[in-house]
Amino acid sequence: METLDLEQWWPDLFEGLDAQERYSIVQACASNWHEGWVPNREDVSDLIDCHKGTISFDEYKARTMEKVARGQASV
Fold first, then answer.
1. End-to-end alpha carbon distance in the chain
2. Quick check: 24 and 51 in contact, CB under 8 A?
3. Relative to the CA of 64, which of 11, 32, 56, 75 has its CA 20 to 30 Å away?
4. How far apart are CA 29 and CA 75, in angstroms?
5. pTM confidence score
6. pLDDT 10s per residue in the chain (75 long)?
């Protein structure tokens, strides 16, 4: 994967976010991507849901820890 274009891959996840929010989400993911993380829909969706307040930060952490326990990389 040479470019990180999350909005093109999963445009529905970014619906309702303004330009600054989109930028913040992409930058958070880009930071991890440069460290070797391979983005996936579930991780990006969880991050956006946490940002929107759809899930709490504690729920976001719990989901992330579940993925780590399953051996999957996460944000």
1. 17
2. yes
3. 11
4. 7
5. 0.85
6. 578 999 999 999 999 999 999 999 999 999 999 999 889 999 999 999 999 999 999 999 999 999 889 886 555
By the 8 A CB rule, do 75 and 43 touch? Answer: yes
Six-digit token string for 22: 């989109």
CA distance 62 to 6: 23
In DSSP notation, 21-34 reads: HHHHHHHHHHHHHT
With the CA atoms of 1, 43, 47 and 17 taken in that order, what torsion angle do they form, in degrees rounded to the nearest 10? 60
Parse the chain into domains and list their residue ranges: 6-69
Q: What is the pLDDT of residue 71?
A: 81
Note the residue count of the chain: 75
